[in-house]
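To the wet lab folks,

You asked to see what we're planning to order before we commit. Fair enough. Below is the target structure as tokens, and below that is the sequence we designed to fit it. If anything looks off to you, flag it before the synthesis order goes out.
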């Protein structure tokens, strides 16, 4: 009696999480700090509150300046705190010059 194993097509990779936020700092090499703000409804009173979180994102091409609205995408750990990569600049900040 032989058992036959069939290999199915590889499962699609898990969809990477994406967030949209504002660049608040680009003072590090190849890294920007992106602040993502969201509205959360209070459990008891129902009022909406702003909650914000800051993420370190990889920016190898130095395309971002503070004030840019960017889309970041989750990726493998790139350093101790960096787990996001800049995917696209949604809205560019006003450039001086």
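Sequence we intend to order:
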């Amino acid at each position: 009696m032989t058992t036959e194993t069939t290999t199915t097509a590889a499962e699609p990779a898990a969809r990477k999480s994406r967030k949209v936020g504002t660049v608040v700092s680009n003072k590090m090499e190849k890294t920007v700090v992106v602040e993502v703000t969201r509205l959360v409804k209070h459990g008891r009173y129902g009022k909406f509150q702003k909650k914000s979180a800051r993420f370190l994102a990889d920016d190898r091409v130095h395309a971002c300046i503070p004030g840019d609205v960017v889309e970041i995408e989750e990726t493998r750990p790139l350093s101790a705190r960096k787990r996001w990569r800049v995917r696209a600049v949604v809205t560019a900040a006003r450039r001086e010059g």
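Structural context that might help your review: Residues 72 and 79 are 16 Å apart (CA to CA). Strands lie at 18-28, 31-41, 48-58, 69-74, 82-91.

Thanks,
Computational group
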